[in-house]
Specification:
520 residues, Growth Hormone, Chain: A, disordered N terminus, membrane
């Protein structure tokens, strides 16, 4: 009776818990850096998407008002794919390891996707689409398929990469924070390279075959960027996976079980994947629920800026209008280009700050105090967009012919300063929440993959919310970007307050728990 109760208790594990591999010595730092470098390849592609894809979809004939709907595939796939991949990678028994098969599959799918996107116009034209500024239905179909595959593949990559970093950290809290700081640093490197490639208008000359009858210079530049993106991602992924190996997850039953006894059905075996996710949410410890809340508020603050940053520069700062006169359109394009420069500066600060997160956290009194502090910086910067916009509006100058001129140097400097300073909280956003999720899950014996997938829900749900509500919300106040930024500032302030008052401090830097995998 007592043995049966013990076995039932043993089998009714939390949905977040997974079979643990044998403990292993702490992995060398250079191997962690090799895995973190995969982020550069992933983020290079994201930077290209953010800077070039929206104009490209309109080139294919997708109307401006429908373009934002395409971006919903990112959060939708992230909501489903990352937890699913995390769950199956936690329980993968491949001889190549738990995370590496998913990382390799994700990199391969990214390569397929970027070629579909880059050659969408050519494939559409070969299938019967007309040339010129008309709707190209076949090209649009190829593009949409490629874009969905790209988002699914990127989510397949990011979750297992971060889980692999947590595995390599051997359950040590300090090493987990360091690993995620390097991941954030390489994201900044990918951003800088991606924005630089996207701004080079003659890049297509490196790949002369990219410019075709169906693909003009802009399209050829995008295609060339994706060639580089695929080559970079495949290179860093191959290098990382060939230098870091995982120990195969044991398929054997628990030694405590009697092999002659009939195996009792576990809660995990009864539940399909989505049941597993609901079970994971039900079994989340209080620390993870608070982390989800703080993360959700943090990303509600970030997404309005991510979606409308260059548009804000073009409209509110430069006074342009993409649907106005030729001069208004020219000013808007100048503002967007200035916004791209701001994103470059933001990425530089992001990279520098990422390398100092661990040191600053120690000087600041801990990671939760640092996260709270930078959330207040984020709130202040978003609120200051009002002041910069008013400054630009008051300094409007007109040419002798009546055309509006670019804003004053002070207004431009103020806007670029905001872009730059926002790199500080962004470095923490890209590292600390994921490190805390790894630390909390390691402390409770939970699977890193599924835990990070659950954390991703706190990112994609706000993204979907802002994508659907942000536009109509701005329209209520005249169609500008400032109302969404103000909501973001309030959300960032709340995130900082909850981080400092509710979020528990992570365990000491000694081992946070049993490591979830072994490496050699």
């Amino acid at each position: 009776m007592e043995n049966g109760a013990m076995k039932t208790k043993q089998n009714n594990k939390s949905s977040l818990q997974v079979q643990q591999a044998a403990a292993a010595p702490q992995t060398r730092l250079w191997k962690i850096i090799m895995v973190a470098a995969i982020a550069a390849g992933v983020q290079f592609g994201w930077a290209i998407q953010l800077s070039l894809l929206t104009p490209y979809v309109q080139l294919l004939g997708i109307k401006h008002q429908y373009a934002p709907l395409i971006w919903l595939c990112g959060p939708i796939s992230g909501m489903i794919v990352q937890p699913m991949v995390g769950y199956y990678s936690d329980n993968c028994t491949s001889r190549f390891g738990r995370r590496r098969p998913f990382i390799a599959a994700g990199a391969s799918l990214v390569t397929i996707a970027v070629f579909l996107i880059g050659f969408a116009a050519d494939i559409g034209h070969a299938s019967g689409d007309p040339v010129g500024k008309v709707i190209k239905p076949r090209a649009i179909a190829v593009f949409v398929v490629g874009f969905w595959i790209l988002d699914v593949a990127n989510n397949m990559l990011q979750g297992p990469c971060r889980a692999l970093l947590a595995d390599l950290s051997g359950g040590r809290a300090k090493r987990m924070r360091t690993a995620n700081s390097f991941f954030s640093f390489f994201m900044a490197i990918g951003n800088i390279l991606g924005y630089a490639a996207g701004s080079w208008s003659s890049l297509h000359k490196v790949f002369p075959f990219s410019n075709t009858k169906a693909c003009d210079v802009y399209c050829a530049n995008l295609k060339s960027c994706f060639f580089i993106s695929a080559a970079l991602l495949l290179s860093v992924t191959t290098l990382a996976l060939s230098t870091v190996s995982e120990q195969e997850l044991s398929k054997e039953v628990d030694e405590a079980d009697d092999p002659d006894d009939e195996k009792l059905p576990t809660e995990k075996s009864k539940l399909p994947f989505f049941g597993e996710i609901f079970g994971a949410l039900r079994d989340l410890p209080r620390s993870m629920w608070i982390l989800l809340l703080v993360t959700c508020l943090n990303w509600i603050a970030w997404f309005p800026f991510f979606l409308f940053d260059t548009d804000w520069m073009g409209k509110e700062v430069y006074g342009g209008n993409p649907e106005g006169s030729a001069n208004d359109n020219r000013l808007y394009e100048q503002g967007v280009q200035a916004g791209s420069l701001g994103l470059m500066l933001n990425s530089v600060v992001l990279g520098v700050m990422s390398l100092g997160v661990e040191l600053i956290a120690r000087r600041f009194g801990g990671v939760k105090k640092l996260w709270a502090g930078v959330n207040f910086i984020l709130a202040a910067c978003l609120a200051l967009t009002i002041m910069v916009s008013k400054m630009a509006d008051k300094s409007r100058r007109f040419a002798p012919n009546g055309d509006l001129m670019p804003p004053s140097a002070g207004a431009r400097a103020g806007a670029l300063t905001l872009f730059s300073v926002l790199g500080i909280p962004l470095a923490v956003t890209y590292s600390i929440p994921f490190a805390l999720a790894s630390i909390f899950s390691s402390s409770t014996g939970s699977g890193q993959g599924l835990s990070l997938g659950v954390l991703n829900l706190g990112i994609v749900v706000p993204q979907m919310f802002v994508s659907l509500v942000g536009g109509p919300w701005d329209q209520l106040f005249g169609g500008g970007n400032l109302p969404a930024f103000i909501v973001g500032a309030i959300s960032a302030a709340l995130s900082g307050i909850f981080a400092i008052t509710l979020l528990p401090s992570p365990p000491p830097d000694a081992k946070a728990g049993v490591p979830v995998a072994a490496f050699h």
